[in-house]
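Record passed on underneath.
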Amino acid sequence: RNVQRDDVLGDILVELNGLASIMESRKLEAVEAAALLRAVLAEIDAAIFAFDANGALQLVNRAGERLLASTHERLAGRTANEIGLDELLASDTRRWNVRRSTFREKGVEHTLLVVSDISRALREEEIEAWRRIVRVLGHELNNSLAPIKSIATSVERLVTREPLASDWQDDVLRGMRVVGSRAESLTRFTRAYAQLARLPEPQKREVALADLVRRVAALETRVPVRIAASPAVTIEADEDQLEQALINLLKNAADASLETGGAVTIHWRAARGQCVIAIEDEGAGLTNSANVFVPFFTTKPSGTGVGLFLSRQIAEAHGGTLTLENRRGTRGCVATLTVPGAQAHRLTGSQ
């Protein structure tokens, strides 16, 4: 008090008073921050546990208390094993999402454990998945059964008419052909649906990619298919499954190019032990890429909506990836299939 600036002691006291004010302000900020943190931890849905270096529980929020059906007072100072946390998490690991990290308090390292109950989210996702499947199945069944029912009714009226029309046999024959066509479409759909559920584990062996691509390209005769200059690569893969994935991708690219009178180009490269296969079309491109890998989603009148989804399943079963996106700088799409286990040799010429 009563400090003055014109002497050394006064200057020191002024500085000390200023430092004291700063420290008091910082202390108040720390107290407020701690209070806010405690309030957030108390209200958050995830169960949070903090253990000290000896494994003793130091902090638990309300969600953690509800999870263990106990209180902080009873749980504090006990280990994870003593409070039954290890047994709880091991009882059904699919239900919990557990995140572990560390932090320091007063120089001592603590372990922070965040436990989230994801069973509700999983149930909601499962319900939504079933809804999508039922929606698609119902749509496809109605598309086939509605015309079959209509034609069956028309044929019944036709053959019971007195007298019979002179061309009744032709009408019946045309109706039966439509019924057969719709039944075959429904058979293809159910076969494709069953294929998704029965995809076996890949039986991997060495596959010469160039030979496989040439064989697949020869199957597509509707549009020109060009194999660009690419390295000779052998990959560890299930040849049958990889061939099916390439057939699906090439057919999809050819369908797109057919609408615009374009062509399809296939090329690949080896990088860091992976083979990256690109199938480029010259179609109109994607207007909405959100549903391209959704099972049974299709914009084609005769499509099943299975090809791209099955191809991605095959890629992921091999530890790889599959993407489909619009090409840059030109029209069309590019499907990029990445498969690990590749070895590059020499270059092959373009075809």
In short: The chain is about 50% helix and 25% strand. Confidence is low (pLDDT under 50) at residues 347-351. The first helix runs from residue 8 to 43. The CA atoms of residues 249 and 308 lie 7 Å apart.
